[in-house]
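Long-time lurker. I teach an intro course on protein structure, and each term I like to show students one example going from raw sequence to a predicted 3D structure in token notation. This year I'd like something fresh instead of my usual example. Would anyone be willing to generate the tokens for the chain below so I can use it in lecture? Attribution to the forum is fine with me.
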Amino acid sequence: MMKKLLSVPGMGAWTWLALSLIALTVYAFAQSRVGELARHGVDETATVTRAYVYRTTASRTHSAHEEFRIDYVFALADGRRISGWKALDRDVWEMAKPGQTLKVRYSLKDPSVHTTAADEYGEAAQWSYILGWISLFLAGFFLLHDVRKAVPWLAPRLRKVSTGLLAVALLSVASALVLRAHVASDGDFALTDGEITAKQVVGSRPDAVTQGLEHRISYTFVDETGRTHAFTRAVDKDDYESADVGQRLPVRYLRGDPRLHELTSAELLDFALVSLVLALFLALLAVPFVVLDLRAYRRGPGQPA
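-- Reply from a regular --
Happy to contribute to a lecture. Here you go:
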């Protein structure tokens, strides 16, 4: 059977390895929590029931830890109620109030498998993004390795182009498009420009989070319905010192409930850094392929390895 597959014109071992890698990537996505919610997910509105700080005490092996959490509950179509909790950034947690609503997507097969809007850019999503692009890079390299030999029109034009560099170039363009889509508004979220209206430093009880002082900025933004929203939040000292009254800043908010929003500069910077590290890793991964290609070019066609 394998001989028949490998005898298909233009389909070498690299091509089938690439197709297998793509199939495994798709299968892994389908079996993941994200894939389950994409296939069998239903959107529902949950209600925040409690906002609290979860603290752990220090031990010999673990330091004291503090987490800002909310409890929420949502109802299924059959009347059953499902509860859950979510850890939030302190800035978002400070805006959470009992009775506030948030979007939830749950699986029809198992409602305990669900996600909230706050999960969208979690660590798991970033790892999925990284592993997905690594798989696509390898698959792209394997495909290009055979395509450049199998297609007569491409062979002479790509003869002097390194397969590794070509794969990196194509995936760099694709990664830029993904980053652009990430910045743009999508789904239940929208982007707008806010404006800093005030800055202040306030005293606070000394603790592990504020260190005795809290740096705050006040800002406003207008949603797509024309309503103006005003908020105040704590920021890092460096961000506070670089902020100026009247300065514009990007805001990403949840449609229908702009109280759930984020100042996207830091979040987009994190995402951009992940993309940069991934691009550097892909370039490093391409180096041995480039070296092999250069050695082959120097030997010329028909020369032994």
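Some talking points for your students: Residues 185 and 280 are 27 Å apart (CA to CA). Residues 120-124, 182-186, 204-211 have pLDDT under 50 and may be disordered.
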